[in-house]
Amino acid sequence: MAKYVGTSMKRREDPRFIQGKGSYVANLSLPNTAYLAIKRSPYAHATIKKIHTRKAKALPGVIAVFTGEDTADLGNLPCGWNVPGIKVPPNRCLQTDKVRHVGDRVAMVVAESPYIAADALDLIEVDYGPLPSVTDARKTAEPGAPVLHDSVPDNVSYTWAIGSKEDTDKAFAAADQVVELELVNQRLIATAMEPRAAVAQWDSSKEEMTLWTTSQNPNLTRIVLSAFVLFIPEHKLRLISPDVGGGFGSKIPTYPEEALVPWAARKVGRPVKWVATRSESSVSDSQGRDHVTDCRMALKNGTITGLHVKTWANNGAYISTVAPLIPTALYLTLLSGLYKIPAIYGEMLGTLSNTVWVDAYRGAGRPEAAYLVERLVDLAAQKLNMDPIEFRRKNFIPAGDFPYQTPVAFQYDSGNYQAAMDKAVEMAGYPAMRQRQAEARKQGKLVGIGIGACIEASGPAPSKVAGALGGVTGFWESGGIRVHATGKVTVLTGAHSHGQGHETTMTQIVADEFGIDINDVDLVHGDTAVIPNGMGTYGSRSTSVGGSALVRSAEKMRAKLIKIAAHQLEAAVEDMVYDRDNGKVYVKGSPNKSKAFGELAFAAYTAHNLPDGLEPGLEENAYYDPANFTFPNSVHIAQVEVDAETGEIKIQRYVAVDDVGKVINPLIVNGQVAGGVAQGVGQALTEGAVYDDNGQLVTSNLMEYALPHADLLPMIETGRTETPSPHNPLGVKGVGEMGTIAATPAIVNAVMDALAPLGVKHIDMPLTAEKVWRAISKR
Amino acid sequence: MYTAEFDYHRPATLAEAIKILGKNKNSKVLAGGHSLLPAMKLRVAEPAALVDIGRLKGLSGIKASKKGVKIGALTTHAAVAASKDLTKACPLLAEAAAQIGDTQVRNRGTMGGSLAHADPAADYPTVLMALEAVITATGKNGGRDIAAAKFFKDIFTTALKSGEIITAITVPAYNNLPHMGGCYLKHRHPASSYAVVGVAAMVGLGENGVVTRTSIAVGGVTGVAVRCTAAEKALAGMAPTAENIAAAAAKVAAALGHPMGDHYASGEYRVHLATVLAKRALTAAVERAK
Fold this sequence. Notes:
The complex is a heterodimer.
Chain A: H1 14-18, E1 34-40, E2 46-52, H2 54-58, E3 62-67, E4 98-99, E5 105-111, H3 114-123, E6 125-130, E7 156-163, H4 165-174, E8 177-189, E9 197-203, E10 208-213, H5 218-229, E11 237-240, H6 256-268, E12 272-275, H7 278-282, E13 287-300, E14 303-314, E15 343-351, H8 366-383, H9 388-395, E16 404-405, E17 411-412, H10 417-428, H11 430-442, E18 446-455, H12 463-468, E19 477-483, E20 489-493, H13 502-514, E21 521-525, H14 542-568, E22 576-579, E23 584-587, E24 590-596, H15 597-606, E25 619-624, E26 633-642, E27 649-659, H16 666-686, E28 716-721, H17 738-755, H18 769-777
Parallel strand pairs in A: 1-12, 10-11, 14-15, 20-21, 27-28
Antiparallel strand pairs in A: 1-5, 2-4, 2-6, 3-5, 7-15, 8-13, 9-10, 9-12, 13-14, 16-17, 18-26, 19-20, 19-25, 22-23, 23-24, 26-27
Helix pairs in contact in A: 8-9, 8-17, 13-14, 16-17
Chain B: E1 7-9, H1 14-23, E2 27-30, H2 36-41, E3 49-52, E4 62-64, E5 68-72, H3 77-82, H4 84-89, H5 91-97, H6 103-108, H7 111-117, H8 124-131, E6 134-139, E7 142-147, H9 148-151, E8 152-154, E9 157-158, E10 165-172, E11 180-188, E12 195-205, E13 211-219, E14 226-227, H10 229-235, H11 242-250, H12 267-289
Helix pairs in contact in B: 10-11, 11-12
């Protein structure tokens, strides 16, 4: 019986966070630190004619000013996901010829204080030659649009397609009904609570660099920096990502500052620190979504027979580290949703524009797919005059069809969508909800109910598949266990916790693997000197891939413990039983003849009495390469009321039923769902990066960019169904992104349901009060 | 988020503060710091000197008399919102203060600081216009009272002269009179929580139930909050029926020429919101007056 797995333990890391004892990059104070600041472009698109640094250099307290000419020995930031035929324009750390978005990097200052560095930035004068700019995902691919890079003359960096066009065309030809939609999945600014930061220290005696950085994947970033940008040998480059205050994907990419800060530290011979301001984050952190999509769904006899999707995906001004993965293999492959759709064809253009680059953002591709599928499904139900739940049920993949092969590459591992719907309908009291809606409508109130029934592909990915799809690295994870002589345990993972609660979940897993007290187990992560190999945290992969690596590692460890116990109890290894309830090993049939975990640990290190040929010590490591993604799924039901006079929206209820396979810690899972729902609601109702006609980011601060506030949300009623993933040893599926994926369509569908009596079919997100008012009043 | 260099003064008395202000060109008064410091960190404001009056004695607190309530300029929004005197005598102001920003802002931000900043999306100016409040400013020649209608000149611009500090605000104790009611409603900006549109309404009812007094002010739509006299006149002497209130509210637009607009809310939408909120605020004010 598991002692910890499945229980709602409070997060073990939280006491330090809520007491202000977390250790973040910006807290690090090394002696003699110098401060770096980046001069950024005020233009969306301009040539750089000349950079005047004399005045800045003369300011007392300024140590150095560097331009792109000075940093010519730095490599360009590479693209780590090369889809076939991709044209990757050069992505320099500091620009020399042109700037291509507001916030693009032009020069940097190193000074005695951050204040002096900021003063010096104002003294750097840049002669720009302003150029016309374009920020729209689709317009940038039209003839005559301003060209960002000579090497990509049509602003289309890559294209990708999946499914059968022929079959899909046939499905539409044979359809008795077709619904279609042109929609925008708007650009979002990730806005992690902690802005990005970096501190670097060069040890000239050993020629070693240490870089503290706010990364979700320090090992991956180390490879990129070492091999492509800094050219410091990997074993002489140490990356430490200590406590990190949220990432949501924006801390996956390798950033120019992660190269410029160590470069400057080596150059000036002092530790160098850079901490982004919030406004700086808005114009330099990778952003999310930004799709323009034409899509249509074919129907025959009330079932979905075909889906056709064409998307223009904005990548921003440069191709970020894994940007091409997001709108290809994490987007078009999800178009089947929870539905049995015989023919699907999806194609996309990866475009460049004068905007901040786009990369993974919570959900990354999957929310974009779920949103369009769920919007079309609602429009289809409406057209067929069917209840949206009935229409969904009719088209769900039946529980008996798993593993289910979709027409868009993915093979879903397990699921029971009818059961998830049953649970959501029950929790929401759906029939009564509809009844109340009918009564409210009679009183002239605009009440709507919306469903988001969504699939996720989490836990990327089998390395072989990743390689075939353009990935430069694999997607395994490493898990290490060190049992110390006194029976205490250090767990090492290549995953990185920046809000997920790994210090709790991972130690719950390991404590149960051995049957020991969780207080004897601690997790280490985020330091490449301690964990030499890992892939980091994104794509809801840490537990399914990283946790599985720890299970494999524990299996190896138990095998060694059994060997020692068998030797000491003078029994055959095959006759031994590892008692995971009590943390001891005994001879089958004689539980009293046992060796406790602690005794065995001590014996392994004294090495006085080990079997012949067995090495002393207890250290194991395992690499786990997943056999498939996992496919968590959800049914969320939202009820909203729209103020008919003002267009304001109030969420009255929110029910979230998620199937994330086996659950390690229900409390953390509920928290992940609630946080995800909040972010999904944010996209639906309030968030959106707005660029003006000159390519200026209007929403560059939190006075303008509307993150969801607490008072926007009702209590989120969470529930679960459980179909364990059959292919990982824990039976788990990802949970980190589910809420974000399902909430957005659930809310938008609810608002559209509320407005249905007025004939409103669609409003693009965010559904601000004015947009809703205009739709209601037909202005 | 690093300010430009500035001098910092922390005078012990109001007179000293006024003296330092007069001596230092391009100096700014620092009270709660909730508007000024963010602007300085963005380097939108780069004052040469700050005169910190935050610790001056006698500038905060609320004193009620039969006819009016006097609020010290350093009184925080939280104190205004929680004041029993105001809740009794002038609840409209307390109701508005409770809707400013968030808890942290209300705990630090001061009434005088907000008024001196004169943000067109702030809540107080609208309420003070409706209440016909009086703002007391003190300079080297002593204090003077400025009517709210004359205080707000333009966006971020007031009638304060160089070297003057707001020391108090006086609002009428309207709620001590029989059959008076007020209401403040706003459409909060989803990011900043400022008023995209804010409407303050005050209504008095006569013995026979007809409207004897009306005061309506709208903020957030134009550069400074405005009184909507056409709407007020429309309700004068009328029975406060839903139809009459709606007809009067429709007239607030007359006072809202050249409305401001941005990416979140256009001028047209702001004017529309003002009419809807005016209708609702008047309706609530009438209910409270009954």
